[in-house]
Specification:
This is MFS transporter. InterPro entries: MFS, MFS_Cyanate_Porter, MFS_trans_sf. Pfam families: MFS_1. Keywords: Membrane, Transmembrane, Transmembrane helix. This protein has about 425 residues and is mainly alpha-helical. The protein has a single domain, classed as Growth Hormone, Chain: A, CATH 1.20.1250.20. The chain is about 75% helix and about 0% strand. It contains 17 helices and no strands. It is globular.
Length: about 425
């Protein structure tokens, strides 16, 4: 096992990730140059743009999928939760191939798998639908875990700002996928399949740009991998991230915000159509919910700044979700307004959640481990959301219990933020010999 490198270590120390970059997070100068630094940032943003459309394009056409395949409400809830279950199972394991093969290479493989999964999911036959959805979830799990750690490594002094940027891109593409899902399904005349399959294209483009990003780094990656394989001086035993209280607090914050988000992404169009809204308009409500998250995410990034203590911001972004759910219950005619308020909360919450993963860790490797933990447990919690919502709607004959559930989750998230937002680290500062 390689020795652990502190955030203040020298640039010559090997990167435990095996990516060819030191754990200090320096993106490098010299031969890479400013152009390569810009390419690396653009590549991260393109990957971010692929991490949600394959999921958010499903909700608006969920009724079409059910009518075509014969799946009931609970089964559709399981279909919506399947990628989240893949996140939960694979997230704690992603850092292992990341260390062995390099984070960049593993992300490239994931983009190829994502494109393949999207295509497979759209083939005729229920078996392909389930298999492709599982592959999509597995591929996105890799990006979910490794992108925050790559940002921590390459931009250690601007974690909140860069996180806000790639989260805004992720949110924007997610919103676009929701908004155009029904129009594409109608325009192609092939129901829901083309509205899902079209998102394989951006994944292919992102993979091509990511491959360009990797050019010129192979020699450094090989050198770092060789250094990682060499025996090191004995290092002090380090406490596992799973035994850190602050790690569990960040994980719970991630899980609560993800549960509320995926509940709405999966079921908001269905909730609105049950109230008499046509499917196209319901899809645009979901677009609105996610689109305003772009603005709120950037605003929250500015408010967070470079401060380590994020308790106030974490609580502030959580409460509007509860208010929006109350509005949907008591004034359903104002649904677009409540979608905007919910989107403001959701967009800010995901930025805080992802930023906390980098802010609460000292090194690239610690960030990858916390990212795996937070997204494994967090998405396991989130996976229960769509399933529980489908069951609640089936058993009660109403969507009211689902809206109440989301409000309760938001208030719990505000409470957890008061702990997760504290200026703490998952691991104490290492003492160099």
């Amino acid at each position: 096992m390689t020795s652990r490198v502190s955030a203040g270590s020298t640039a010559s120390a090997p990167d435990p990730s095996g990516t060819g970059h030191p754990d200090t997070g320096r993106s490098g100068t010299g031969r890479s140059g400013t152009g390569h630094a810009a390419l690396k940032l653009v590549a991260v943003l393109l990957v971010a743009g692929c991490l949600r459309p394959a999921l958010t394009s499903v909700g608006p056409v969920l009724d079409m999928i059910g009518a075509d395949t014969g799946l009931g409400t609970t089964a559709l809830g399981v279909l919506g939760a399947l990628p989240l279950l893949a996140f939960a199972v694979l997230s704690p394991l992603v850092h292992v191939p990341g260390q062995r093969f390099g984070a960049e290479r593993v992300v490239l493989w994931a983009l190829a798998a994502l494109a393949a999964g999207i295509v497979v999911r759209s083939l005729p036959g229920a078996a392909w639908l389930w298999a492709g959805t599982a592959l999509v979830g597995a591929a996105i799990a890799v990006g979910n875990v490794l992108v925050p750690s790559i940002v921590k490594r390459d931009h250690p002094g601007a974690v909140s700002r860069v996180t806000g940027g790639y989260t805004s891109v992720m949110t924007g593409f997610a919103a676009l996928a929701s908004g155009v899902a029904v129009p594409i399904a109608v325009a192609t005349g092939d129901g829901w399949r083309w509205s899902l399959a079209v998102w394989a294209g951006p994944a292919v483009v992102a993979a091509a740009v990511w491959a360009l990003r990797m050019r010129g780094t192979r020699a450094r990656a090989a050198a770092a991998t060789a250094a990682a394989a060499a025996p090191d001086a004995p290092a002090a035993r380090e406490r596992p991230v799973w035994r850190s209280a602050i790690a569990w607090q960040v994980t719970l914050f991630m899980g609560l915000q993800s549960t509320a988000f995926y509940l709405l992404v999966t079921w908001l169009p269905t909730i609105e159509t049950a109230r008499g809204v046509n499917a196209g308009a319901a899809g645009w409500y979901l677009f609105l919910f996610q689109a305003v998250g772009i603005v709120s995410g950037l605003a929250v990034t500015a408010v967070m700044g470079r401060r380590a203590d994020q308790r106030a911001v974490g609580a502030l972004v959580s409460v509007p979700m509860a208010a929006a759910m109350a509005g949907m219950l008591w004034a359903p005619g104002w649904s677009p307004v409540w979608a905007v308020i919910a989107g403001i909360s959701s967009g800010g919450s995901i930025v805080v959640a992802l930023a906390l993963i980098g802010l609460r860790t000292r090194t690239f490797l610690h960030t990858a481990k916390l990212s795996g933990m937070a997204q494994s447990v967090g998405y396991l919690l989130a996976a229960t959301g769509p399933i529980a919502a489908g069951w609640l709607a089936d058993s009660s004959g109403s969507w009211t219990p689902v809206l109440v559930l989301i409000a309760v989750l938001a208030l719990a998230q505000a409470c957890v933020a008061l702990w997760a937002g504290r200026d703490r680290y998952t691991h104490p500062e290492p003492v160099n010999a």
